[in-house]
Specification:
It is a single chain. By secondary structure, the protein is α/β, with parallel strands linked by helices. It has 4 helices and 12 strands. Helices cover 28% and strands 21% of the residues. The strands form 3 sheets. An 8-stranded mixed sheet has the order 6-3-2-1-7-10-11-12, sandwiched between helices. Strand 4 and strand 5 form a beta hairpin. The longest helix has 23 residues. The radius of gyration is 15 Å and the shape is globular.
Length: 187
């Protein structure tokens, strides 16, 4: 294992513990902050995720956004491939997808211009530490190659890390939304 891979693994371990503690405290207000951000982009195709384990839950904000435009959830089609996004609406039938994430059973495919991204840790500079599969990095790279795509990290404030081990393929976040408010990354 390379030094960077070891540093990422250690950072993930610490970040998972911080996220679990924040999740146990059930920080309030985060979905409201996310809804406020999304309100400025009504009708723009967006994608979020169905929370699993101790991830912060974006579904209340996604439900509100779905009243104004297309919303999708990620579908993993294979290791090493970017995500695809199936149309989602409140109350649609969900089934287990890869890695246990819930996905819509049926629906059209959408191409989001806004992507709400789950994470393990984030930095104020817009860095993101994910689970290590590279799905969101590959996806953001492909989306951004086709058109401007806004990447919004959604996390508990406790998931902030001062320094993250990043590599050139790690895609930056444009905004981070937490229960404490909205963070615009600084260099």
């Amino acid at each position: 294992m390379s030094d960077l891979a070891e540093r990422k693994a250690a950072a993930r371990k610490v970040a998972f513990a911080r996220r679990a503690a924040a999740h146990a405290a059930r920080a309030a207000g985060a979905a409201g902050h996310l809804s406020s951000v999304l309100a400025g982009h009504r009708g723009v195709p967006l994608a979020g995720y169905a929370a699993m384990r101790t991830e912060i839950d974006p579904l209340p904000a996604l439900a509100e956004a779905a009243a104004h435009g297309p919303v999708g959830l990620p579908v993993i089609e294979g290791v090493g491939r970017p995500l695809r996004f199936r149309a989602w609406s409140p109350g649609c039938t969900m089934v287990p997808g890869a890695f246990g994430a819930a996905i819509p059973e049926t629906g059209d495919w959408i191409t989001p211009e806004i992507l709400i991204v789950p994470l393990v840790a984030f930095s104020r500079a817009g860095g993101r530490l994910g689970y290590g599969g590279g799905f969101y990095d590959r996806t953001l790279e492909a989306l951004r190659a086709a058109r401007p795509t806004l990447a919004i990290g959604f996390a508990y404030a406790a998931q902030e890390a001062e320094d993250l081990p990043l590599e050139p393929t790690d895609q930056p976040l444009d905004l981070i939304v937490t229960e404490a408010g909205v963070i615009e990354p600084r260099a």
